Amino acid sequence: MQKFNIGSTLLAKGGEMADQRPSTTAANPPAALKQEGPHKRARRWPWVLICLVLLVIAAAIFFHRRQAKAPGARRNPGAAPPPLMIGTTTAQKGNIGIYVPWALGVVTPVSTVAVKSRVDGQLVKVNYEEGQMVRAGDALAEIDAKPFQASLDQAEGQLARDTALLENARLDFERYKEAFSKNAIPKQQFDTQASVVHQYEGAVKLDQGQVNNAKVQLAYCHIAAPISGRVGLRLVDAGNIVHASDTNPLVIITQLEPITVVFGVAEDHLPQIQQQLRKGSQLVVDVFDRAQQVKIATGKLQTLDNQIDTTTGTLKLKALFPNEDGSLFPNQFVNMHLLVDTHREVMLLPNPAIQRNAQGAFVYLLQTNQTNQVVAVHPITLGTTDGNVSEVEGLEPGAVVATDNFNRLTDGAKVTLRPAAGEGRQRGRQGTNAMQRGGAK
User: Fold this and answer.
1) What confidence tens digit (pLDDT) does each residue in 318-338 have?
2) What is the helix (H) or strand (E) element at residue 159, kind and residue range?
3) Model pTM?
4) How far apart are CA 405 and CA 398, in angstroms?
5) Domains held by the chain: number
């Protein structure tokens, strides 16, 4: 080989130079040899190093050429790349909702009652536990009723006394009436007795009113729940003197079933909402958590506010929810999703399959030719989007499109389909069973 011929030539030249060196004979004394030897060896070292470098270069070239001729390196640079493995999805017809953009809402109870005492007295008993669910009419607390019972007894006694006097006055009036008819008494005496009867009738009515008032005051000693709901923390303990004029209530009850959510929408969506309400449609409202991931409840739009907030350009809406599971809690912040319309029997496609470029939205549509499966760039028109699904135009029902590997896909690229997870597990089980049967044989 040429590389070895270069090395041989250099070695031959080195030999000739060695032959031209003066030989040591008896005529040359040893002292002279010792003086000339180091200079000659110094002149030989550069040539030896050059030879070694050339040998290393020649060996490297030889090794590289052998590697290039190895079977693994014999590839055709013009060969087509292998098919790309892709995941796919199918375009299907279905219904998709048109929603008002996400709105922040606040859970608001239908009713919240601050329970106060309506009479003055000592709080002798508390009949509820903090956080307890109560129904309307359940006993909550007791005020000392003895003073009010005494007032009732006194009023009833006065009523009985005046009632007896009224009956006696009426009997006298009947006697005076008969005597007056016979001209036995003067008319003035007859009129005086009639006035006495009216006087006692008024006294009886006054007494009856006092009795009724005493009964009401006595009833106020028994404090009952005005609404059904959850009792809050106890604000006044038993043993304290309470007054009807107290600012702080005994307890606060909040109604939880049903419950409402107040939220605002931009004024631009008001015509669309009003159009549906005029048709008599009940608009569905979904409540989601703060991350807009978990649906908490579903209810109906109940009412609209009567004016738009000029500072924000929004209109307040109120939605009603059954809240039987108690998932909505007063003053909770939630995200609202108001459904205003539904597109039915339209083509739907998952969002991961939709790509975009300067010309608009497109998909990689799966096609099959005589020998291979390929993908083709197929333009589409996007409609409304709901979550992870979009309404599209330009695809036929059942069209299969790619869902991944987009950074390597091109128009006309050959592909192979990635098996579904369930299909892969099934094939794995079938292969294992086949191996077990083969081992048994």
Assistant:
1) 999 999 999 999 999 999 999
2) helix 146-181
3) 0.63
4) 21
5) 4
